[in-house]
Amino acid sequence: MLHFTPDSPLSLTILVLCSVLVCVFEFVNGFHDTANAVATVIYTRSLKPGVAVVLSGVMNFLGVLAGGLSVAYALVELMPPDVLTPPNGAPAVPMLLSLFGTALAWNLFTWRAGIPNSSSHCIIGAIVGVAIGDSFVHGRTFGAGVDWHQVVKVLEALAVSPLLGLAGAFVLYRLARLFIKDTALYQPPQGEHPPRGWVRWLLVGTCSGVSFSHGSNDGQKSIGLIMLAVVGLWPALYALNPQQPNPVPLAPTQAVQLEQVLEQYDHDAFRTQALAAAARLHTQAGAVQGQGVAPIPVTEIRADIFQVVAGLKGVQENPALPSAAKASAKQLRATLRPVVEFAPWWVRLLSAVCLSLGTMIGYQRIVKTLGEKIGRTHLTPAQGASAELVGAGLILTAGYTGLPVSTTHIVTAGIAGSMLGSGAGVQRGMAGRIILAWLATLPVTILLAAALFYGLSH
Question: So where does this one cross the membrane (predicted)?
Answer without folding.
Answer: 12-31, 51-76, 88-109, 121-137, 157-176, 222-240, 345-363, 435-456
